[in-house]
UniProtKB/TrEMBL annotation:
Domain Beta-ketoacyl-[acyl-carrier-protein] synthase III C-terminal stretches: 240-328
Subunit description: Homodimer.
Species the sequence originates in: Cylindrospermum stagnale PCC 7417
UniProt remark on domains: The last Arg residue of the ACP-binding site is essential for the weak association between ACP/AcpP and FabH.
Family statement: Belongs to the thiolase-like superfamily. FabH family.
The name this protein goes by in its record: Beta-ketoacyl-[acyl-carrier-protein] synthase III
Signal peptide feature range: none
Pathway assigned to this chain's UniProt record: Lipid metabolism; fatty acid biosynthesis
GO biological process: fatty acid biosynthetic process
HAMAP family per the UniProt record, alphabetical: FabH
Reaction catalyzed: 3-methylbutanoyl-CoA + malonyl-[ACP] + H(+) = 5-methyl-3-oxohexanoyl-[ACP] + CO2 + CoA; 2-methylpropanoyl-CoA + malonyl-[ACP] + H(+) = 4-methyl-3-oxopentanoyl-[ACP] + CO2 + CoA; (2S)-2-methylbutanoyl-CoA + malonyl-[ACP] + H(+) = (4S)-4-methyl-3-oxohexanoyl-[ACP] + CO2 + CoA; malonyl-[ACP] + acetyl-CoA + H(+) = 3-oxobutanoyl-[ACP] + CO2 + CoA
Chain positions covered by the region annotation ACP-binding: 256-260
Its biological purpose: Catalyzes the condensation reaction of fatty acid synthesis by the addition to an acyl acceptor of two carbons from malonyl-ACP. Catalyzes the first condensation reaction which initiates fatty acid synthesis and may therefore play a role in governing the total rate of fatty acid production. Possesses both acetoacetyl-ACP synthase and acetyl transacylase activities. Its substrate specificity determines the biosynthesis of branched-chain and/or straight-chain of fatty acids.
Gene it is expressed from: fabH
Amino acid sequence: MQNLGVAIIGSGSALPATSVDNQALSEVVETSDEWIITRTGISQRQLALPTESLSGLATIAGNQALAAAGLEASDIDLILLATSTPDDLFGSACQVQAKLGATKAVAFDLTAACSGFLFGLVTAAQYIRTGVYQNVLLIGADILSRWVDWEDRRTCVLFGDGAGAVVLQANKSDRLLGFSLKSDGTQNHYLNLAYNPSAQELIPGVSVAKGTYMPITMNGKEVYRFAVQRVPEVIDKALFQANLSVDQIDWLLLHQANQRILNAVAQRLNIPEHKVISNVAHYGNTSAASIPLALDEVVRQGKIKPNDIIATSGFGAGLTWGAAIFQWGR
């Protein structure tokens, strides 16, 4: 009988070498270590140099995840790259496929901003559950520092760069226990990286638009309000689908946007602090990379054990949000 369940069997991550702490940022923009930590919990972030690429970081994370899963690149059927900041606007997944040497794999990008990894997880699972693919490499990677306005102290202090990856594999028992995905485009204006319309006259009377983008803009209060309200709801929905209660969760793994959001969501769900995974202090908001980065860190620390039940939720631009409940390992 075919294995139509899904297991998450390995993780990996990659970070740029350059670290910038709050003190250093206060020399760039009017802010302070205390101001940033009080509002966000972030004390430093890793930033990619101009010579570093999104596909390079994604490849390192992917290789680590393959090694952890005990697989070769040639075993992979599908590579999903969740990113909003590709090296190439047409997509960077194929570059990653080439760098990994995953000659058998089909590869494409998936964009859902800070929810990207979670949306990718659910997408990957559908390919496995339908029997189409056996082994899927899911990578969440972003270099948001490319798109930050370094004079806007409300946003520039928040973001960092990085990549995280997991391998999903067909399995006899289904370890993805439940999920729920949501979108609300009416709130898009609260957080975006918008197209910047500027015209170029092609011939008299005919103008075309030039392809450029504006920096990230965000209404922090509204995004905070949205996350604190919607994330507990969507986790409840996923738990209901999984036929589990909150107290059966071993770990709460949220998109690492802001420590205050993590605390508020945990409080609303009545999840104790020792079950909440957090590394936002060290890396800031790494968008689609944040969930797999944090996951890989605690897996390598030996905190997450096989069969542990993890409730994860991503939320961000779109606006998009979602939750998934899964058991770690085969």
